[in-house]
Amino acid sequence: MSRFLIKTIKTKEVSGELFKNSYALYKKYRRDTNYNIFVKDLKKCLYFIYIYDKKFLELIGFCSVSNLFDVFEKNNVIIFSGEAVIHENYTNKKLLQTIYCKHFLNVKLSYPFRKVYFLTTCDNFKIYLLMERYFSKFYPRWNCKMPKNIQSIIDASMNRLFPNKYISEKGIIRNYSEACPLKQSAANITPKMIFLDKKTDFFQKINSGWREGDELVCIGLLGWLDCLYFSFKFIISYLSKHPIKRD
């Protein structure tokens, strides 16, 4: 039996206790947090997915997602991910990646003839690097321009979700009055990292206000081959951390 319970419920069904436990985990990695803002942001998404460690009887992670339909163009589905947190002791378990992989495949199977995109906001370089790792096609990226139709999908989605906070020409969500930036220890960028990694350098240039809570809007394409690519990268990444034991 699995040690971890992963459950999806509608956000409107989340109990006050579950909100409070989620907030307690969230504020471990954030500064200038506010419980009411946290709950308001979570309620922007339709679904709440949480991870419970049955061995230690504690909440260890969660994320919120919504499916948007027919944004800018007909017959598409936008999977929008809001907050996503995993306890630092469980990052190598790939639990959040498991959640997303299952949700992507479920949406793709439910709408096999629609174009599917994954949309999220990145206020730290780690999330941006995960986009690069798991999506064969994602934007914005350092080595090519943003296609016009993709930019239009991003603009339409963000103007629907964050009408007063989205800055189209920069591709970021800016909300200093309600921002809860990461603590420096959670995802700091050093000069050495910028020098060695062009992707990290690109992120901190295009989203120079990340320390104050600016969030870079990113999108990944999820065609059938992209879903297989995501699944393949997930399995390879998992096996690299959990090699198969042979007798």
Brief sketch in words of this structure:
The chain has 247 residues and is α+β, with helices and mostly antiparallel strands.
Index terms:
247 residues; alpha+beta; Aminopeptidase; nine-stranded mixed β-sheet; 9 strands; 37% helix; 23% strand
What does this structure look like?
By secondary structure, the protein is α+β, with helices and mostly antiparallel strands. It has a single domain, classed as Aminopeptidase, CATH 3.40.630.30. The chain is 37% helix and 23% strand. It contains eight helices and nine strands. Strands 1, 2, 3, 4, 5, 6, 7, 8 and 9 form a nine-stranded mixed sheet that branches. Helix 3 runs antiparallel to helix 8. It is globular. It starts with a strand and ends in a 6-residue tail after the last helix. The model has no long low-confidence stretch (mean pLDDT 85).
Strand-residue proportion: 15-25%
Shape: globular
Q: How would you characterize the largest beta sheet?
A: 9 strands, mixed
How many discrete domains?
1
CATH architecture assignment name: 3-Layer(aba) Sandwich
Number of strands: 9
Mean of residue pLDDT values: 85
CATH superfamily placement: Gcn5-related N-acetyltransferase (GNAT)
Poorly predicted residue ranges: none
Number of helices: 8
Distance between the termini: 23 Å
- Taken in chain order, the helices and strands follow as EHHEEEHEHEHEEHHEH
Range of helix content: 25-40%
Pairing-aware structural class of the strands and helices? alpha+beta
Computed over alpha carbons, the radius of gyration is 18 Å
Q: In the CATH hierarchy, what is the class? A: Alpha Beta
Q: Which fold name corresponds to the CATH topology?
A: Aminopeptidase
